[in-house]
From TrEMBL:
SUPFAM superfamilies: Single hybrid motif. The keyword Transit peptide applies. Keywords: Lipoyl, Transit peptide. The keyword Transit peptide applies. GO terms for biological process: pyruvate decarboxylation to acetyl-CoA. It comes from the Eukaryota. Residues 1-64 form the Lipoyl-binding domain. Residues 106-128 are annotated as: Disordered. This is PDC-E2 5-like protein. It comes from Nicotiana attenuata.
């Protein structure tokens, strides 16, 4: 698997999310898989729309901790030129062939280092 296809977004921008709740459906080589949120928060912005494909490891959406932070997250992603220049405190949820699990970002930040008051608690990224 070199890229993930977004079959559908179960949630829309601005929706409140609960830990364990399905956010989107991703098509893999083997089957369509629900991608769940690992945190409570809000779906701040969708970067890759339904039907779109994203290379493994690329950011497809951002999750804000509160409603007030949604506009901040949108503004921050608009000023970023690449996923590597985003905040190093970003957590990622990655899509693998078998399971969705939290991992550190490309910047090498451990999820245990991330404080609860950061704008983004999670990005969704397809990854092998």
């Amino acid at each position: 698997m070199t890229e993930g296809k977004i079959v559908s977004w179960v949630k829309t921008e601005g929706d409140k999310l609960a830990k364990g709740e399905a956010v989107l459906v991703v098509e893999s080589d083997k089957a369509d898989m629900d991608v769940e949120s690992f945190y409570d928060g809000y779906l701040a912005t969708i970067i890759v729309p339904e039907g779109g494909c994203a290379p493994l490891g690329s950011t497809i959406a951002l999750l804000a901790e509160s409603e007030d932070e949604i506009s901040l997250a949108k503004a921050k992603i608009l000023t970023s030129t690449s996923s590597s220049s985003q905040e190093t405190t970003t957590r990622a949820a990655v899509v693998t062939d078998e399971v969705v699990s939290p991992v550190a970002t490309a910047a090498g930040v451990s999820p245990s280092n991330v404080g609860p008051s950061k704008i983004w608690k999670e990005t969704f990224t397809p990854r092998e």
